[in-house]
Write a structure and sequence with these properties.
alpha+beta, 28% strand, 37% helix, globular, 4 helices
Amino acid sequence: MSGWKPYVDRIEEFGASWAALVGKKEPQSVWYMTEGPEAARAETNDNLVKLAKDYSDFDTLRANGITLVPGIRYMVTKADDEFVHGRKGDQTVIALDFGDGIMVATHGSKVQTGNLVKDMTALADYLKETAHQR
């Protein structure tokens, strides 16, 4: 079990339907992600690493969108130092920086994005303050 699992579990408790923590420093890697279809895990892992590499390049994120699982591309509607936000139909993706890593979460229409961002930001601040780096 990964030491990052409790943080991913916490993001899901905030209302996310799926979550992951990804390292930003070279070489980028997925530290932990919610279980999903086994067939898509390798591609999702690669897509998360790409997101970590592109995270600070807001123009690239806006132009290319965010793909997490095969066949689902989120249109980026906000990308700045605060957080990255994207939408695909009634599904939303959020990515937040917490120092050496980013946290990524998705949610459906029953969850308020603002509340999830607020809770994820508090968790990101905690990780920064306590220097939870890999």
